[in-house]
Specification:
By secondary structure, the chain is of the alpha+beta class. The protein has twelve helices and 25 strands.
């Protein structure tokens, strides 16, 4: 009761007329009311009211001691009381409510009673908004974009800030990634282009031509060839690649299927940049499947809040970033945020499906699972999201998420993705090797998404003279692992197993293909799903007996070796796991 009287009295001081107190002597009156000037708050306590721009109370607002877990909520009259606030120095108290920007007020030991006024943001998206650059480290003032506050500029910050991390992240390279560009244009990294695809009238007796009047021919083996390319097969179309790779351009009006990756410039060439991500307001998912609609890839499944001219808008995972035109968005901490660009269907085949694989796995259990962000935006020990000299507050390191976003090129992430276990024995002139690969630490298939990615398990057994023993039973690596010298990474016919999602082009019959933009069929998918174990066994001849040396290695290869040769991609295999044992 006393807390209520205290806050009502305080409110009367700040906004006479906003709160009606009963007249003395009326049936509603009470002798417990005291003069506001006589009221004292308990030590280390801040009290106040949260109001909107019309000076109306805002109920159910989050009120927080900035950059801490100490928070409370306003009541139906917008009133709050926040305890355990150290007031030996001025304290920043923030407030946020659904539909509003965050704001703050400063409380002191002399003035522990405060008012926080929060303003609504526009509920409509402005598709004509001009994107803000992320990392113009050479710019001045606002020309620096996000780097003005979120990049290290001196030695006083002992760890990278979000823009520094983003610059090392594959998302910042999505518009200029040479593997993407050469696949889009049908060139090698030197600009040499394969011939345009030739088409012939469809034969109605062929079941794989569907309703098409023309079908593609396989490349002419007598012509120079530098690998497939979307623009070779569809020279008159920009395609929908831009919906994920150049979202700043594709999110413009009527550009979902017209954004040409060869023509972007400026901010749009920054790939998946800060301003784009922090303008995302929601993700549209099919309520039946929990997935994006197959015909709405990338930006088409996002809802944005691009601000009207003269204003700004940033949505993020904190409800206490103030002052400024910032607001809290829960979606930024959910796996659904990643779904539109990590789920892609082509010709009725889910090609990119790491989100769907996660959704089907125990990792999606909201009580015991993990989100994409848990693994791909893990805290690194940083305690600032911006430089201290621009006003950033120290935060608990577990609340700051890395923008490095490690993925399929990150050795540390890959080396913690799966476990490898081997058992071996020698008897009767033979060596038996059993191998198990356990996907015990990844929330989706290994490997995932881009269909060129595959695992290569290589099993090699040497005798006491360091000569390779001959394999007499067990699987061998397929031809698409490369015919040639194993010392140079051409592992076809070597003892081992390959794990991949293999596509075959319907019209040409070519496989394995990465040209998923053409009609295709899944020939094989033996990738290792979450918590699944892949087992294989091998037998080697060792009639001479004696000690043997066994090496089992598991690699991730980013694409098929013939494709890398065509395009001259210099992408070394990444060693994920290795086991070495000796047998007597």
């Amino acid at each position: 009761m006393m807390k209520r009287l205290l806050l009502l009295s305080f409110l009367l001081i700040l906004f006479p007329g906003l709160v009606h107190l009963p007249e003395m002597g009326s049936a509603e009156s009470t002798d417990k009311y005291t003069e506001p000037s006589q009221l004292l708050l308990p030590p280390d306590t801040v009290a106040g009211i949260v109001i909107n721009e019309e000076h109306q109370p805002v109920p159910e607002a989050v009120v927080r001691l900035q950059a801490t877990e100490n928070h409370t909520f306003t009541d139906e009259d917008g009133l709050f009381q926040l305890e355990n606030v150290p007031l030996d120095e001025p304290a920043s108290i923030t407030a946020w409510a659904e539909g509003f920007f965050i704001n703050n007020a400063i409380a002191t030991s002399e003035q522990p009673q405060i008012t926080i006024e929060i303003h609504r943001f526009a509920q409509e998206d402005n598709p004509n908004y001009e994107w803000l650059t992320s990392g113009n480290l050479m710019g001045e003032g606002e020309d620096q974009g996000c780097a003005e506050c979120h990049a290290v500029r001196d030695s006083d910050t002992p760890f990278p800030l979000p823009v520094d991390e983003w610059l090392q992240d594959a998302h910042s390279q999505s518009a200029i990634n040479p593997r993407f560009l050469t696949s889009y244009n049908g060139t090698d990294v030197h600009g040499n282009q394969s011939p345009l695809t030739m088409f012939i009238p469809a034969n109605p007796t062929r079941s794989n031509t569907g309703d098409y009047n023309y079908v593609a021919l396989a490349p002419d083996p007598g012509q120079p060839y530098f690998g497939p390319g979307y623009r070779l097969d569809f020279p008159g179309s920009a395609g929908n690649c831009g919906n994920c790779h150049i979202p700043g351009a594709a999110a413009k009006p009527n550009m979902n299927f017209s954004a040409d990756v060869n023509l972007v410039e400026g901010v749009e060439k920054e790939g998946i940049f800060c301003d784009f991500c922090h303008k995302v307001w929601d993700v549209q998912l099919d309520p039946q499947t929990g997935l994006p609609a197959p015909d709405k890839p990338g930006v088409m499944s996002y809802t944005f809040r691009r601000p009207p001219e003269g204003h700004q808008f940033f949505a993020g995972p904190y409800d206490d970033v103030a002052p400024g035109e910032d607001t809290y968005s829960a979606i930024q901490k959910e796996s659904a945020y990643c779904a539109p660009c990590h789920f892609g269907v082509f010709w009725d085949n889910p090609i990119y499906n790491s989100f769907g694989e996660w959704l089907d796995s125990p990792y999606s259990d909201p009580q015991s699972g993990q989100t994409c962000q848990d693994c791909h935006m893990p805290p690194t020990g940083a305690t600032l999201i911006a430089r201290a000299d621009v006003g950033a507050h120290q935060r608990a390191p577990e609340t700051i998420f890395s923008h490095r976003m490690p993925g399929a090129m990150d050795e540390t992430l890959l080396q913690n993705a799966v476990s490898l276990d081997i058992n071996a024995s020698q008897q009767d002139g033979q060596v038996q090797v059993q191998v198990q690969i356990m996907n015990d630490n990844t929330g989706h298939h290994v490997p995932t998404d881009y269909p060129g990615r595959h695992l290569i398990l290589l099993v090699q057994v040497y005798d006491q003279n360091d000569d390779l023993l001959q394999q007499v039973a067990g699987p061998v690596l397929p031809e698409w692992c490369g015919i040639g010298s194993p010392a140079e990474g051409y592992y076809a016919k070597q003892p081992g197993e390959a794990y991949a999602k293999l596509l075959q082009e319907d019209w040409t019959g070519y496989y394995p293909t990465v040209a998923y933009w053409n009609p295709n069929t899944v020939l094989q998918d033996n990738r290792i799903s979450a918590f699944e174990t892949a087992s294989s066994e091998y037998t080697f001849d060792n009639q001479a007996a004696g000690q043997v040396h066994i090496e089992v290695r598991l690699f991730l290869r980013r694409s098929f070796i013939n494709l890398m040769d065509w395009k001259d991609w210099n992408v070394p295999d990444i060693l994920m796991e290795e086991a070495i044992i000796n047998l007597e």
